[in-house]
Amino acid sequence: MKENTRIVYVSHPASGLARSNFPLVCHIEDGEIVRILPYRIPEQVRLYEIKTSSRGSFSRSRKEVQMPLAYAWKQRVNLNRVEYPLLRDDWSPAAPNTKGRGLSGYSRISWDRALDIVVGQLERIKREYGSMEPVLVQADGHGHSGYLHSLHFWGHHLFDSTREHLGWGWWTQQVRNPDSWEGYYWGAKHVWGFDSTLGEPYQDAVWDDILEHTEMVLFSGNDPEATGLGMSGSTALEMIRWLKRAGIKIVAISPDLNYAGAAHADKWIPINPNTDAALYLAVAHVWIGERSFDEAYVSTHTVGYEEFERYVGGGDDGVPKTPEWAEAITGIPAHTIRALAREWAAKKTSLSVYFGGPKIRGTFSHVAARMEAYILAMQGIGRPGRQFLRTGAPSLYKQFLAQVPRYPDVDSHGIALNPIIAYAFGTGPKSPVFVPRTLAAEAILDAPIEWRGTAAALAPAADQFSEHRFPPDEGHPGIKLVWNENGSQAGSWSNGWKWLEALRSSAVDFVVGIHPWLENDILYSDLILPAQTNFEHEDLISVQRSDLLAMFYQDRALEPVGESKTDYEIHQLIAERLGAGAGFPPADDRLRGAYEETLAFTKHGISWDEFKERKEIVYDCPTWEEWIDIKNEYGFGPHNGGLHRFWTEGKGLETPSGKIEFVSARIAELDPDNRERPPLARWVENAEQKGSSRSREFPLAVVSNHPRLRFHVQGDDVDWIRELGKVTAADGYMYEPCWIHPQDAETRGIKSSDIVMLFNERGAVLFGAVVTERIIPGSVCVEHGAKMDPVIMNENVVDRGGCINLISPSASERHAEGEQVSIPEMNVSAFLVEVERVDPTSIQADPGEYAAIVRGDRQS
Amino acid sequence: MSMTSFIVDVEKCSGCGLCVVACKDEHVGSAYEPWTKPQPATGHFWMNLRSYETGKIPKVSVSHMPTMCQHCANAPCMKVCAENAINRRDDGLVWIDQDLCTGSGLCQEACPYDVIYMNAEIGVAQKCTGCAHRVDEGLLPRCVGICPHGAILFGDETGDVMIAAAANGDPLEVYHSEFNADPRVLWKGLPRRIVSGTVIDRDTNDVIQDVDVAVRDLFYDQVVSTVTDAFGDFWLRHLESDRKYQLTVKKVGYGEQVRVLSTDSDRDLGEVVLVRTD
Q1: B91 and B206 housed in the same domain
Q2: At B171, which CATH number?
Q3: Is residue A859 scored above 50 in pLDDT?
Q4: Do B18 and B146 share a domain, yes or no?
Q5: Shortest Cα distance from B258 to chain A (angstroms)?
Q6: Is the pLDDT of residue B171 over 90?
Q7: Among the four A193, A347, A500, B215, which has the fewest Cβ within 10 Å?
């Protein structure tokens, strides 16, 4: 380090939602990032300690490390940036030439002209249609964010401000469906409630219970080495080490031997994707036959068990759900299913996820989640050692107390949490005119559409039965303008090709993109406004995605690239031009005001200026003795946590009966005839499964996980990340890897490093094969989020970049046109494809050819 | 100055790649004279994460070896350099003087660990310096500093951390001792041969727990034994390569299974069937 080196804390580059992991420690010399280091929690900060009676004490290292991409960010700051406002060459207000979106080039324009265009378009919408309802505001996705300058909400707030200050009416709010929790949300909630924690049981002091009592933890599609490290930093890895040190056996149940499974699991049980419900039914069958479940708990803490037992025994459909029955579906040998069931019953077993893994976002993942809740209930969930466990932060998954020792006042008032994220993560849409993100493409292409549920993350369970339509009434113009912050839809949501088709719809006159980089569906914009990365402005960093809470002051690390502005400033300028600037007070005022509501100011008396000077505030953790006292106030003993209170009380859940419901009273009342989600969960067949008629043509299932090296769709363009993660094929192109088992590879003549095409009716994507035993035969495994690179192959458009979400199913597919989508679930894993080896000479990367085919200029 | 060493613990490494990225972060675009000029933007892996997969589903094992320059005391690269450009510091770190280097590439060919990279842009050979520039400031090499699992240690070999690491668990060994290069990097948990399987009773279609599984080295007579776990699985992980082992699988009430295995590769036996005798 040189004498003139500036040290700047910068918010983790990927989080979004106004929250952060612990920051990056950036060394800046001569206006450039020289290196980025992990953070070290200062010696004077008191760390927590979890004490057990016989397994020792557990704490964390002071070293706080983020995912590899975080330390490669200096490569990306200047890479492929939107430096200036860019206007599409063949767009004009009079001639939008929508077919050119995704194909045409852009030219630089001034901010002045860009703002004029935006204002002109919004005023035109107001004039022609009377409100902003024809504007679809996308604004959600992970990405650069500090407290203030963040994605997810300023676009919504802009139109909320024009409503409030100009009387311009509502906008169409895209509601971010509960993507990370899908099956728990649409399914498990109806078994055990937990509305505020998206269907996942409370994590209050859970580690105190686990480390004291638990003997075995099932990692159900859980990969803390990938998702955990990305979303909450090294605390996720520390937690795995706790399990090992406590002598707790780890059993990984997943179609792939994922990174945590490979490094840490004692046993891998490969399972066909999205068949977990069948496994759980067979486990229940074993327990029922051997009477090895908690019958007392089931009778006092649950309702409707008898119906479930009858179903498992085959009383309803004549099919006993034996391990042999499940073997044919799951690919798990019956002997292993029996062994798992017996060990699960004999040992104090907890089940662990970190956002649910691929299991929780496949077709009918709500069935898997409900079955999981049923069998956790059969073993008395909440009993010491038997919990639902999340391996990582943040700690919003609680009723009263954080998952590790933390002072309650620090939890509630320690850090600044921006209330404005409610637009993206709240109890319901602000605007009465909205569409779930899973139906955004349909809202443009297939309107009118009908569905049930707002899909809002924190909505109560009954909300799932509310009925909605878009557009709200006949004669409504529908979507005429798309406001696209962040550009992640095609790579991280369902059926990306359809979303791109929607953007090219002739119904949409104007698409605004707001993003730092020229990538993904931002390239389908008519006007692109340049946004900054976290490195280019001051902000407050609220560390909530970790086991300790902290705040940092982020200086401006680098000069803004080109004419880029913060997300806040971009929307502020537009608001001001429209006359709604009152909705966007000065950034500094917001930051200072937010800081001054935290304990750092109110309790510890650290002024805003002092905070800006010292840069960091990391809150002390309670001593173990203090924590015992705190827990005692909430009815937890020293070694209790998780659902302990429900276990002792047998009531109080957010279900109609207050208990765990095998038969959901709410579904029975509000949606009893839903074949997909009946009052009692049942094994349901679907078109994306082996054995369906489609599976004759598309016999392999795709498992798609959160990536190890990317953060969703971010970072795929960083060379160091590509060197680590891509497969270089014979044509020299770096392909996204596709794991394929030797059996499936052999029958298709595929070897490692071959180029392979994964395809179904929705389209095709190219990958580099990795022949490996780490994936169950009959499935292939690819990570989501690769950057799109459309090319022509045999006269068809295919994606060479490996963006698998382009061909994943849409929520509407199972329904006839115009039919109500009863569960607008997101399905990005466990869907069918065929895989074929590709001859590289058939790939035509000529952009001119590509454009001609896409436009339909060329007759094929 | 006493000798410094690296200790790499293979069993702690999860293959996350942080060490690879941290090394690039430190060196791409930055020179640390005299120890090294900047690393090129891509193509060099002064920290090279080498991963190995073995076994058959579901008995798959994955090992990761974060492999840097081994900083050898008897380094082939030093012997072959015509410019005497490769030096060894008193603390044992080996570095290439890139002002003297003419880019012949002989050191790259000579290195038996494949840890030297040619920088075509500036015409020199380059490799891990042990972050000598950081060591001189009392800091740790970047790979060590960033590893979240503590899989890479560095320090004075007489210091507490290193002594504790040496005492704890697997013995420390040199990688490829047959190269006779006398490296300063010591390894723990280098992968050895694995014999694995699942014992089942085909008649009841159940796994069998608590089965005694033993292998006897037929050349050197050592016996390694284990019992099957709740899933009927057994793993014997620390076996020698290229030996012959007598495998016995037995449990009271079942017929014994005996086989001879050679460990020219790992052996996953899949399902091993025992038949009840009563």
Answers
A1: no
A2: 3.30.70.20
A3: no
A4: yes
A5: 23
A6: no
A7: A347
Task: Please tell me if residue B3 touches chain A, with a CB cutoff of 8 Å.
Answer: no
Subunit contact A68:B42, Cβ cutoff 8 A: no
CB-CB under 8 Å, B15 with A262: yes
Q: Are residues B197 and B184 in the same domain?
A: no
Q: Which residue of B has its CA nearest to A235?
A: B148
d(CA A538, CA A521): 28
Q: For the residues A160-187, what does the mean pLDDT come to? A: 96
Average pLDDT over residues B22-39: 97
CATH number, residue B211: 2.60.40.10
**B137 in the same domain as B265:** no
CB contact at 8 A, A219 and A243? no
Residue among A215, A723, A740, A752 with most chain B CBs within 10 A, to mutate: A723
Residues B265 and B223 in one domain: yes
Nearest C-alpha neighbor of A706 from the set A825, A831, A805, A807: A805
Q: What is the pLDDT of residue A860?
A: 38
Provide the phi-psi class of A635: left if phi over 0, else alpha when psi is between -120 and 50, else beta. left
Give the pLDDT mean for B51-75: 97
Q: Which tens digit of pLDDT belongs to each residue from A370-393? A: 999 999 999 999 999 999 999 988
* Other Cβ atoms closer than 10 A to B14: 23
Instruction: Write out pLDDT tens, residues A621-665.
Output: 999 999 999 999 999 999 999 999 999 999 999 999 999 999 999
Per-residue pLDDT at A152: 82
Chain A's closest residue to B142, CA to CA, is A37
The shortest C-alpha distance from B246 to chain A (Å) reads: 25
Q: Select the residue from A35, A67, A546, A741 to test the B interface by mutation, using most B Cβ atoms within 10 A.
A: A35
Neighbours of A307 (CB within 10 A): 15
B17 touches chain A (CB under 8 A): yes
Tokens read off for A733: 């192109």
B219 in contact with A, Cβ within 8 Å: no
DSSP B48: E
Residue B199 domain boundaries: 193-274
| Cβ within 8 Å, pair B14-A63 | no
Distance CA A838, CA A751 (A): 11
pLDDT in tens, A738-784: 999 999 999 999 999 999 999 999 999 999 999 999 999 999 999 99
Task: Provide the 8-state DSSP code for A784.
Answer: S
Q: What percent of chain A has pLDDT over 90?
A: 89
The whole-model pTM stands at 0.97
Q: Does B268 touch chain A (CB under 8 A)?
A: no
Q: Which residues of A touch B234 (CB under 8 A)?
A: none
CB contact under 8 A, A774 and B60: yes
**What letter would DSSP give residue A3?**
T
Put simply, whether B146 touches A (Cβ < 8 Å) is yes
> Tell me, what amino acid is at A560?
P
Q: What domain count does chain B have?
A: 2
Beta strands in A30-128 (DSSP E): 32-37, 39-40, 50-51, 57-58, 63-64, 86-88, 106-108
